């Protein structure tokens, strides 16, 4: 009874294992990679059908090992490193928590109450400058008052609203920003 291809090729690999490791290490540049390649080669030799004509088993095993090495290198270039996968999985959720939503609603309701408590002119000044983006000059002209009065009313309104929601106003140079 003739010996099967799998048996012949595996015996060839086992008998010449050290020589194969040496040659593959030289060609692949790493003994660890050479050992990995030979392990995969051993597994692949199980799939060689007996119908395949193998005239030179040593050459066949070496050529199979080289092909396995090429396939492993190609597979590694397609793989995403574990560190990148971990980074992708750690995407932060920027949505506010239920507690933050409740706090912001409470602040908004307090702000609305503070707006209603303001006298009429400071209320209009705050609305025109902060919400409509008008300048102090445009607001003063629309309300028929001086720019200094608008500036004073604006500061009063901001301080009142900030106090009602327990916030501090950061002083800025140049007054309110113009919206474009």
From TrEMBL:
User: Which Pfam families does the entry link to?
Assistant: Sigma70_r4_2
SUPFAM superfamilies the record matches:
Sigma2 domain of RNA polymerase sigma factors, Sigma3 and sigma4 domains of RNA polymerase sigma factors
Q: What keywords sit in the KW lines?
A: Sigma factor, Transcription, Transcription regulation
| The UniProt record lists the keyword Cell cycle | no
Domain spans labelled RNA polymerase sigma factor 70 region 4 type = 109-161
Quote one Gene Ontology molecular function term.
Answer: sigma factor activity
**What Gene3D superfamilies does the entry give?**
Winged helix-like DNA-binding domain superfamily/Winged helix DNA-binding domain
Q: Name one GO biological process term.
A: DNA-templated transcription initiation
Decide whether keyword Transcription regulation is in the record.
yes
Checking PANTHER family in the record gives: RNA POLYMERASE ECF-TYPE SIGMA FACTO, RNA POLYMERASE SIGMA FACTOR FECI-RELATED
* Homology family: Belongs to the sigma-70 factor family. ECF subfamily.
Spell out the protein name for this chain.
Answer: RNA polymerase sigma-70 factor (ECF subfamily)
Organism, by scientific name, is Afipia massiliensis
């Amino acid at each position: 009874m003739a010996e099967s291809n799998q048996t012949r090729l595996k015996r060839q690999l086992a008998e010449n294992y050290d020589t194969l490791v040496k040659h593959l290490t030289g060609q692949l540049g790493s003994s660890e990679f050479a050992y990995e390649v030979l392990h995969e080669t051993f597994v692949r030799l199980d799939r060689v059908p007996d119908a395949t004509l193998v005239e030179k088993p040593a050459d066949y095993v070496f050529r199979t090992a080289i092909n396995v090495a090429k396939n492993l290198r190609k597979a590694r270039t397609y793989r995403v490193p574990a560190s990148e996968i971990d980074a992708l999985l750690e995407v932060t959720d920027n949505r506010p928590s239920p507690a933050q939503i409740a706090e912001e609603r409470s602040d908004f309701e307090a702000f609305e109450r503070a707006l209603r408590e303001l006298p009429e002119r400071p209320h209009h000044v705050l609305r025109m400058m902060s919400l409509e983006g008008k300048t102090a000059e445009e607001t003063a002209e629309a309300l028929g008052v001086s720019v200094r009065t608008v500036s004073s009313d604006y500061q009063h309104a901001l301080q009142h609203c900030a106090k009602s929601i327990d916030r501090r106003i950061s002083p800025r140079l140049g007054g309110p920003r113009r919206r474009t």
